[in-house]
Write a structure and sequence with these properties.
Length: about 400
């Protein structure tokens, strides 16, 4: 059985509102490890089906005509050449999301982009405040940060040709499209419910990507637009030419960690294959983290940061070098590092190792105070003997206060 967002809407459940209600604690995962919305929705759909005793085909109910609706007949239009407002998308009161869905025929959706005008048919359009450039707390009305336009292809329709036609507007690489989409068979034998992501343009505060999901009888293509993910005033103040300073001789303030005013979360994001160089100053010296990004959080909308997380991913050798460099400044005994990264031998097992599919997997943590009001937990996770750029990682979890 396959599920999609329509099943939640059919049950009068707003997917994004329900997701927000589940987010009751400060988020620790950094953006490169954050949940894919489709995975969250799939879990919620499974819960709905269990609670309701199974999923059946029902007449869809939607809020298309609710107060504030911007639906004009069967047409929806959004202008993303300027920052969207709540009124632009029909968010009224304290709502944190808005959904529109097709009834008998697809919605006719027009989106003004920095690259031109995108016109596509869509089954469902979701707008929410909690994209990567927003947050999920009930702290009052927020401006929209995330747009998802769900287009569905029936058996026999050419997904590849359609995406290639839209590629110039979305900033997609045609080579990526032709590499990924042939695996999206619409022959009734689609193997997985989520097939991949195509990354499009980044134009100042607006970014585009496309998610692809194959089901037994259809392929869903989600055109997604996010606000403030890679550029916003807070990020651009601290990230210059791919480098970010981080002074840990004292607890950093909100500006140092790229918090937007009134938000409890801050992210410095990268896309796959990209890194941000974080130049760290410690009382004991300086080092540079080659990170996939940075996440930080606070206990209140304008409160001081209470924590942050940084990941360094790389080969086994890179992981060794990075752990050595950090250990020297964080007071970790070099002998402990050597012992941790030494493979088990006959009669001498590595106490931090365990069998893995690609080699012995080693995991160990160190917790070190580094300055007044700052401690760092260093977590290493590496598959010894595994080749490739993701054999290991070092995570730095920072606590302030």
């Amino acid at each position: 059985m396959s599920f999609d967002q329509a099943s939640l809407v059919a049950a009068d459940i707003d997917p994004w509102a329900l997701t927000e209600k589940l987010a009751s604690a400060p988020p620790c995962p950094p953006p490169w490890a954050r949940r894919r919305r489709g995975v969250v929705i799939a879990l919620l759909l499974a819960a709905v089906c269990v609670l309701s005793g199974g999923c059946s085909v029902v007449e869809l109910r939607s809020g298309n005509n609710a107060p504030g609706s911007v639906l004009d007949g069967n047409r929806l239009s959004f202008d993303l050449t300027t920052r969207p407002t709540r009124a632009d998308v029909g968010m009224t009161g304290d709502r944190q999301s808005r959904s529109y869905q097709a009834d008998d025929e697809d919605l006719d959706v027009t989106v003004q982009l920095p690259t031109g005008t995108l016109q596509i048919p869509a089954r469902i359009v979701n707008i929410a405040i909690n994209g990567a450039g927003g947050d999920s707390y009930d702290d009052g009305p927020r401006e929209p940060k995330f747009f998802s336009i769900n287009r569905q292809f029936a058996l026999g329709e050419d997904v590849t040709a359609s995406l290639l036609a839209d590629a110039p507007l979305l900033g997609l690489d045609p080579a990526d499209i032709t590499r990924v989409t042939p695996g999206l068979s619409v022959s009734g034998n689609a193997p997985v419910p989520q097939a991949g992501v195509l990354y499009g343009f980044v134009d100042d505060w607006l970014s585009a990507q496309v998610q692809l999901r194959s089901f037994a009888d259809s392929v869903q293509v989600l055109y997604e637009f996010e606000v403030d993910v890679y550029h916003n005033p807070a990020i651009d103040r601290v990230l210059v030419d791919g480098r970010m300073p981080l002074d840990l001789t004292h607890p950093p303030d909100r500006e140092a960690l790229a918090f937007l005013p009134g938000y409890r979360d801050a992210y410095v994001n990268t896309r796959p294959g990209e890194v941000v160089l974080i130049d760290v100053t410690l009382p004991s010296g300086q080092l540079t983290w080659t990170a996939g990004g940075l996440a930080a959080w606070a206990a209140s909308p304008d409160g001081p940061p209470t924590g942050a997380a940084v990941y360094e991913n790389g080969t086994e050798e890179q992981t060794r070098q990075r752990l050595d460099a950090s250990a020297a400044l964080l007071g970790i005994d070099p002998a402990e590092v050597i012992a941790t990264l030494t493979p088990s031998a006959s009669g001498t097992p590595n106490p931090w190792g365990s069998p893995g599919s690609s080699g012995e997997r080693v995991q160990r943590s160190w917790d070190r105070p580094v300055a007044a009001g700052i401690s760092i937990t260093v977590d290493v996770d590496v598959a010894l003997g595994q080749a490739g750029p993701f054999a290991g990682s070092v995570r730095y979890q920072l606590a302030f206060g």
